[in-house]
Write a structure and sequence with these properties.
- The protein is of the alpha+beta class.
- It contains 28 helices and 13 strands.
- The chain has a six-stranded mixed sheet. Strands 3-5-4 form a three-stranded antiparallel sheet.
- A hairpin with a 2-residue loop joins strand 6 and strand 7.
């Protein structure tokens, strides 16, 4: 997919405004210049497109690094302008050799020769940048009895004392310094060797352009770990220098003086060889770049996630080149239309005139920074706790039982790095959506930043569904790649909870969601913005059924009519414990009580939280005489410390004294719906009543 200059430029401006905290300006820009599907919201991707990874790393090691990409670019170009005044053109050995060739054994020429188009190529280097002094001025500045000067290894500027040469000066350099011997008229040489001349000139300019782009013309490069990759590239180029050095040995004796008596044919053949070597080097680099394996083709399971806490480097260390997915497989996004938006509002909120509450619109999947609770997702206000607890359960599953290194203990796995927990969030959302799509396809809802339709009729606009763009994929690998590319909208964006809910409904399809419910008019978001059991079941089991018992159940409603109640079909990876069962309001079946992993979403007092163990053996051991630890996390409780519960079952519980039944925490009642008569030790943590 071709990159639009306009979109990259606008994305660069938005990145500047965002890093500077100019929110009102961003809002005005989004209104006057709306975002499109081609807009770049990923800072790392923007750096890659602008080809400024080296500049970004170099900026990071500075004492006062710049915060925005725009400032880094401007600083680079300002430095470039200064270095243009200081850096000489003949730092390129090939250009030096060409200048020597053109000035050797040739008659003197006047400054008017510089206007001749046939000799323009050979003098481009210092014609464009230096002011040329007339011959009479030269004689005044430098008498004819001046001695021949020695050459430094970096420059080939001086001629023999009997030759009259051009002199140039620069305000920042030494005034009156000779730049080269007098130029010869190369007309006959150009006639005989036009192809060689063109090859040398093009190779010289191409080499110089590449060196400027890499920053080689900006002076010494700091020897830092961030520059290691750049040094490796420079070593490859050094392989092409033997012929060049060999030619210089012929031109320069051991005392450092320039030898001007070489035959012209020898120099011409040397230039041709050097040009050929550089041309082959460029071809080799192109072939290597084409044959280099695409990072996206590597096995993600073999990649080691290091414990690095730098959020700015997160994209670089865990990237898998996700932008190729849409273009290669043709998963073009389709914008939300008003009909689908009205259907979504009806199944979620009950009517197209209803709107999401503030609690839903401001809730993403942001992780806790408390050391012992780094696995936990923080809930800002009450309402979407069912969605948060469900995604939290799957994140814990990925951390404890799928993202395992042999050196990690259970507690280390639930104290992940930023990279690891974000990766687990991607995998958790992928699993939920893939199961909702019956493992055939899934749909991802992304906020595009601009309206796709103008609401009319029986519909109340709130600026959420109007901006949605949906991507539908047919395999879980591409699903993970797309989510990785847009995970910031779920994690740090304010609409993360809404986007996941919409994605799950669309993955299942609105029609099937209604078919799953006992009553098709039931909503997924109930009174006061609370999640209904149908929404929690959709996220946990992939079906928006209304009940938590096993399989379906038929009830005789009288007069020969039967009512079908739909339950959970098959064991789930994550289970559910409900306080309603303690009060005999409902019955949680074995499919949810005994999931494949020791992780449970807890429904207590109209609130959802998470309970989990570190060992899968917890589910297979006999309950008689069992003692184990469970960890409890509530994202809404502003939890600041780890809550570890020691549960004693059977004979182990008999030795424990029970407390006053009036003060038993609801969480303990939930635990006893799974382990009857269990004793719970809160281990010096204040019980949650």
């Amino acid at each position: 997919m071709a990159v639009s200059v306009e979109e990259v430029s606008s994305s660069l401006v938005r990145e500047y405004l965002s890093r500077k905290g100019l929110k009102r300006t961003i809002a005005c820009m989004d209104e006057e210049h709306p975002r499109t599907e081609a807009s770049i919201n990923n800072r790392s991707l923007l750096r890659q497109i602008l080809n400024m990874e080296g500049l970004y790393r170099k900026n990071k090691v500075q004492n006062s690094p710049l915060k925005t990409l725009l400032e880094i670019i401007v600083k680079h170009h300002i430095k470039g302008l200064k270095n243009d005044k200081i850096t000489s053109n003949d730092s390129d050995p090939l250009l030096s050799a060409q200048t020597t060739c053109s000035t050797d054994n040739s008659p003197a020429v006047t400054p008017t020769v510089m206007n001749d188009t046939k000799t323009e190529d050979s003098t481009t280097a210092f014609v464009n940048r230096k002011h040329i002094i007339s011959r009479s001025d030269i004689e005044e500045i430098c008498p004819s009895q001046h001695k021949q000067s020695s050459l430094s290894p970096e420059t080939d500027r001086l001629s023999s004392p009997n030759q009259t040469g051009f002199w140039a000066y620069d305000s920042e350099n030494q005034k009156g310094q000779p730049l080269g011997a007098s130029l010869q008229d190369n007309e006959s040489f150009i006639r005989r060797e036009p192809e060689k001349k063109t090859a040398v000139t093009e190779s010289t300019q191409r080499s110089k352009t590449n060196r400027i782009r890499r920053g080689m013309m900006a002076g010494p490069i700091a020897s830092t770990p961030q520059e290691s990759n750049k040094k490796r590239q420079n070593r490859r180029q050094d392989m092409a220098q033997p012929l060049l050095r060999k030619e210089e040995e012929h031109r320069q004796p051991t005392d450092g003086l320039l030898v001007t008596g070489l035959p012209q044919k020898s120099l011409e053949s040397g230039l041709t060889e050097i040009s050929s070597v550089r041309h082959n080097l460029l071809k080799t680099k192109k072939v290597k770049s084409l044959t280099r394996p695409n990072v996206a083709d590597l096995d993600v399971s073999e990649m080691v996630l290091n414990d690095i806490e730098d959020d700015d480097d997160l994209q670089e260390l865990s990237k898998v080149s996700f932008q190729r997915t849409i273009t290669e497989h043709g998963y073009a996004g389709h914008p939300m239309n008003q009909h689908t938006a009205m259907e979504l509002k009806a199944v979620l909120l009950g009517s197209s005139l209803n709107c999401f509450s503030v609690e839903w619109r401001n809730q993403g999947f942001t992780f806790s920074e408390t050391h012992d609770l780094r696995y936990g997702i923080v809930q800002k206000k009450g309402g979407p706790c069912g969605v948060l607890a469900s995604i939290q359960a799957f994140v814990v599953k990925k951390l404890l039982f799928e993202n395992i290194r042999s050196s990690d203990t259970g507690l280390q796995r639930i104290r992940p790095s930023n990279i690891t927990r974000r990766k687990c969030l991607v995998l958790a959302v992928s699993e939920i959506l893939w199961r909702a799509g019956e493992e055939n396809q899934a749909t991802i809802a992304i906020n595009s930043g601009r309206n796709h339709f103008t609401p009319t009729g029986h519909y109340k606009s709130e600026g959420v569904l109007e901006k949605i763009t949906c991507f539908t994929v047919d395999n879980i690998t591409d699903l993970q790649l797309l989510l990785e590319q847009h995970i910031e909208q779920f994690e740090t964006g304010v609409l993360g909870c809404i986007l996941l809910t919409i994605s799950a409904v669309l993955s299942r399809s609105i029609e099937k969601v209604r078919e799953d419910m006992d009553v098709p008019t039931t909503t997924l978001i109930g009174a006061h913005g609370y999640c209904t059991q149908e929404l929690v079941n959709l996220l946990l089991c992939g079906r928006a059924v209304s009940n938590v018992f096993d399989n379906d159940m038929e009830l005789d409603s009288g007069n020969g009519n039967m009512t079908l109640l739909k339950g959970v079909k098959g064991h789930c990876d994550v289970g559910l414990l409900s306080l309603f069962e303690h009060y005999n309001i409902c019955k949680v079946g074995a499919y949810l009580k005994t999931p494949r992993y020791p992780i449970w979403v807890v429904c207590s007092e109209s609130h959802f939280s998470v309970l989990f163990g570190l060992q899968r053996e917890l589910l297979t051991n006999q309950d008689n005489g069992l003692e184990f630890d469970l960890y409890y996390y509530d994202g809404l409780a502003n939890q600041q410390e780890e809550i570890r519960l020691t549960v004693s079952v059977g004979k182990s519980a008999l030795s424990c004294q029970d407390v006053d039944t009036d003060l038993i925490p609801p969480l303990e009642h939930c635990i006893r719906t799974r382990w009857k008569d269990a004793f719970v030790n809160w281990n010096d943590t204040e019980p949650i009543l």
